[in-house]
Amino acid sequence: MPLKQALLIRQDLQLPKGKLAVQVAHASIDAVLKSDKKIVQAWLNQGMPKIVLKVKDEKELLEYYHRAKEDGLAASLIADAGKTVVAPGTKTAVGIGPDEEEKIDAVTGKLKLL
Questions:
Q1: Are 107 and 53 in contact (CB under 8 A)?
Q2: Which stretches within 1-114 are classed as H helix?
Q3: Contacts of 45 (CB under 8 A, 6+ apart)
């Protein structure tokens, strides 16, 4: 059973590359910590496949976050501390899974790669 993780990042914030990378990393790690340990182990054994996808704004980010949760997927919403580029509490990224590729694609399949 192929597994993967999806990481969503807001495009309207126009984050510098380094800041974007850190927000995606936060989303990845936090979602893994919220995931089923057996699925995480299997995902690790598969090489930790992941994709980074773009959403246009906070509204779309939240829509995908809530849809993932409703579909029973582990999901993490990242709100920035606001020490550098964005205001405190700005929602920047979402991590979904790892979980079965089909389940992830059912939620995120229409989004474009970053």
A1: no
A2: 17-33, 37-45, 58-70, 101-108
A3: none
Residue-level pLDDT at 60 = 98
Structure tokens that stand for 51 in this block? 């994709």
Q: Strand pairing partners for 5? A: 50
Strands 91-100 and 112-113, by their bridges, are unpaired
Q: 3-113 falls under which CATH superfamily?
A: Bit1 (3.40.1490.10)
d(CA 68, CA 77): 11
State residue 15's pLDDT score: 97
The predicted-structure confidence for 97-109, as pLDDT tens digits, reads as follows: 999 999 999 999 9
Ordered by start, the domain boundaries in the chain are 3-113
- pLDDT mean over 39-51: 98
Whole-number Å distance between alpha carbons of 26 and 21: 9
The strand pairing partners of 77, in sequence order, are 94
What six digits make up the tokens of 81?
């501390």
d(CA 109, CA 91): 21
